[in-house]
Amino acid sequence: MNKTLPPRRLSVAPMMDWTDRHCRVFHRHITRHTWLYTEMVTSGALIHGDVARHLDFSEEEHPVALQLGGSEPGDLAKCAKLGEQWGYDEINLNCGCPSERVQKGAFGACLMNEASLVADCVKAMRDAVTIDVTVKHRIGIDDVASYDFVRDFVGTVADAGCRTFIVHARNAILKGLSPKENREVPPLKYDYAYRLKGDFPDLEIIVNGGIKTLAEIDAHLQQVDGVMLGREAYHNPYLMAEFDARYYGDAAPEKSRADIVRAMLPYIHEQLARYGDNGKGLRMNSITRHMLGLMAGMPGARHFRQTLSDSRRLAAGDPRLLLDALERMPQLAA
């Protein structure tokens, strides 16, 4: 039986090279209830690689979802089972990534052309696990502009038992645009996500793409079940400090920026002691790089970033660097 989990009203998107386990712990110190997603892990990497390296995470990260990339139902079922065994709260299938590497593997956004295959993948994973299996997808690929395309995709996959769809409200352009351009150039069509909720009222529809402010989140939540933040959550993470009270009714006081910095110190000490000297070579920068946006918009933010980016002190692995960075923000250091 599933543990009691908060609703997916707010979540942080899976972002390659960004939402690793250290980033997720940092985000969890800002918001207690927002769902966190791993970077995409390919089925091949799990089946043929170091499972612990890909799946290990900290207990404090819950609720946390494992995003898988792949297109072979049997392999995805094995990987979903591994994810459940390691303690993840959800398995998410990537049907939205447009990178060339993903295209060569015939998964990611390519799968939107193969709704029946996605349905088979979802069914295989659902048969293998007891936790939720969800799908993250685009609204179309290349020059497909019709709403009917994404409606039919969702309908086919829903017939296989998927109840939650995370809709990146842009097309994926498979040729001619980089992954970064694919996050910026294709126009956003939030109304497609809204229409999906109208056509499939029993499904959980979560909208993603270009969302940056609390006012925008509020507006989307009038139309759909949840909002997934991407780059804004990384570059301006303190935006999430209001999420617990505003969207989850949590009366606990939100942490200050200084509280969050200090809360990361025990984690950094523990991680360096565990992984820094045993051949795995964890560097402090692997953790602190995710914290550079914490002071975004505040006077002195540049000094905070500069101190936290001191390569000599980072190489020395002294977590007191965080407290020194705080000292560069006198309005917070007290």
From TrEMBL:
It catalyses: 5,6-dihydrouridine(20) in tRNA + NADP(+) = uridine(20) in tRNA + NADPH + H(+); 5,6-dihydrouridine(20a) in tRNA + NADP(+) = uridine(20a) in tRNA + NADPH + H(+); 5,6-dihydrouridine(20a) in tRNA + NAD(+) = uridine(20a) in tRNA + NADH + H(+); 5,6-dihydrouridine(20) in tRNA + NAD(+) = uridine(20) in tRNA + NADH + H(+). Keywords: Flavoprotein, FMN, NADP, Nucleotide-binding, Oxidoreductase, RNA-binding, tRNA processing, tRNA-binding. Residues 12-317 form the DUS-like FMN-binding domain. InterPro entries: Aldolase_TIM (IPR013785), DUS-like_FMN-bd (IPR035587), DUS_fam (IPR001269), DusA (IPR004653), tRNA_hU_synthase_CS (IPR018517). FMN binds at P14, M15, M16, Q67, K136, H168, N208, G209, G210, G230, R231. Pfam families: Dus. Its EC number is 1.3.1.91. The active site is at C97 (proton donor). The record marks N94, K180, R183, R302, R305 as: Interacts with tRNA. GO terms for molecular function: flavin adenine dinucleotide binding; FMN binding; tRNA binding; tRNA-dihydrouridine20 synthase activity; tRNA-dihydrouridine20a synthase activity. SUPFAM superfamilies: FMN-linked oxidoreductases. Its cofactor is FMN. It comes from the Bacteria. Belongs to the dus family. NCBIfam families: PRK11815.1, yjbN. Catalyzes the synthesis of 5,6-dihydrouridine (D), a modified base found in the D-loop of most tRNAs, via the reduction of the C5-C6 double bond in target uridines. Specifically modifies U20 and U20a in tRNAs. This is tRNA-dihydrouridine(20/20a) synthase.
